[in-house]
Amino acid sequence: MFSNQFVLFFSLLLCLPFVFFFVAPHVFPSPPGESLIPISDEIDDRSLFIAAAGSTSLSHLSSGNPNPKLKIAFLFLTNSDLHFAPIWDRFFSGHSKSLYNVYVHADPFVNVTRPGNGSVFENAFIANAKRTARASPTLISATRRLLATAFLDDPANTYFAVLSQYCIPLHSFNYVYSSLFESSIFDKSDPDPNPNPRGIRILYRSFMELISDEPRLWKRYTARGRYAMMPEVPFEKFRVGSQFFVMTRRHALLTIKDRILWRKFKLPCYRSDECYPEEHYFPTLLNMKDPDGCTGYTLTRVNWTGTVKGHPYTYKPKEVVPELIQRLRRSNHSSSYFFARKFTPDCLKPLLAIADSVIFRD
């Protein structure tokens, strides 16, 4: 005959599944569901990424050309008209197309006016653009789409600058180009600042933030659930940073080829107020794969004072004066910032008024 203690123990054991069924959902939330990105978009992207990853040209520097024409690929993400196209046209004006390419990812569900009349943006819109939404993995997809398109399009694309429709240049094209490829003093964190005899910097690094001391880092990490990112992305490897950066070609290829981290970052979040995948994916990926290949800072200046619902401070026309441009250029990490955001569309007129005398006068 069973003892009373054994019967009690056996009864408790039988009750455990029921206890777990009712209590566990409150203690251990279920993992997020599948990505909200349409499977058709994923299939289209996979084809593009496979083609780009299969490209044999990793760097134009390896071509053996004694006078290589290295290019900067300017990648614009937009879900509205390119209000500052005129100032960007002036930025590129007079410079050979052998030094740059321009690509635009425009949300096809938004009626975006395409600049014409000889604008650099006239034929820059990529054909495989998909729907995007702020604070969602669709912005990761859009950026990877731009990177893959530019990577495939021209093997001379050596740096990839990701920008928004609200970004403006703070310097001339000559300043940006020479700083990236030739200057030995531009990047103050460069461990090997000496250019090679051809005047081309030997060490290329991506200008990307890898922030690990952000006050809300843990809440951002657990936005999909406490254990949702494990085991692929441990918390100590998780980073945040600006979604606007300047990336090297080798890092563009690394990003295009990634499958593992993408499966994590495309998952929906429980906490939308802490979920900004576009600010988490790229810094975390490069921090895990090649942190020494990054400077740890961005070249796009943003003012986060007075932020509203995650949006940075937005400059108004009355604020656009020469002193503002000079102030936005100042950087503790490099000789200067290249770009700045965020400006209201009606800032175009005052910006054009000081373009030649201030912005493009380095």
Automatic annotation (TrEMBL):
Query: Could you name the Gene Ontology cellular component terms for this entry?
Result: membrane; plant-type cell wall
Q: In what way does this protein cross or attach to the membrane?
A: Single-pass type II membrane protein
Name recorded for this polypeptide: Core-2/I-branching beta-1,6-N-acetylglucosaminyltransferase family protein
UniProt-annotated location(s): Membrane
User: Which stretch is the leader sequence?
Assistant: 1-29
**Where would one find coiled-coil regions in this protein?**
none
Keyword terms: Glycoprotein, Glycosyltransferase, Membrane, Signal, Transferase
Q: Transmembrane residues, as ranges?
A: none
Q: Which GO terms describe its biological process?
A: negative regulation of leaf senescence; regulation of salicylic acid biosynthetic process
Q: Which domain of life is it from?
A: Eukaryota
The record's GO molecular-function terms, alphabetically, read: glycosyltransferase activity
User: Is Glycosyltransferase a UniProt keyword of this protein?
Assistant: yes
Statement: the UniProt record of this protein carries the keyword NAD: no
